[in-house]
Write a structure and sequence with these properties.
This protein is mainly α. It contains six helices and two strands, in the order αααββααα. α1 packs across α3 and α2 packs across α3. The chain is elongated.
Length: 138
């Protein structure tokens, strides 16, 4: 009976690649990187363009999946472009940040207290901007 080797080309006996491992991205990091690219782009981007600008050896399928997740979340719009699709953000970066801040505010049991604490921690310049923004909304 022949014994099969547990070594595979490019892998060590333990099943790990002999190449240096690619660093695993933190949860949501790729989505944030893709959004940052889309915000900085002067026009909608196709998945291949996103892949090229991100670098890091990511597969085009990974980029396409990430873009589709952003579409599903309502953060990105997909439109036909040539033989594929191009993607653009539906919100400006400032709008997106404000929505995230509101989401965080409502996570606690006492959003009024969270808001008071937040406002109290703001530097004077930001407090003035907040006052001006509230005055123009009134």
């Amino acid at each position: 009976m022949a014994v099969q080797s547990s070594t595979v080309v490019g892998r060590c006996a333990a099943g790990h690649s002999s190449d240096p491992p690619l660093a695993r991205r933190a949860s949501g990091e790729l989505e944030r990187a893709v959004l940052a690219l889309l915000w900085a782009a002067p026009r909608p981007l196709m998945p291949m363009q996103v892949q090229q600008q991100l670098g890091g050896g990511l597969a085009q399928s990974t980029i396409a999946t990430t873009l589709l997740r952003l579409v599903t979340k309502g953060l990105v719009e997909r439109a036909p472009h040539g033989k594929g699709f191009a993607y653009r953000p539906l919100q400006r970066v400032e709008q997106h940040a404000a929505v995230q801040m509101l989401d965080l505010l409502h996570r606690g049991d006492r959003p009024d207290d969270v808001l008071r604490y937040f406002a109290g921690q703001l530097p004077a310049g930001y407090r003035e901007v907040l006052r001006e923004a509230l005055a123009t909304r009134a």
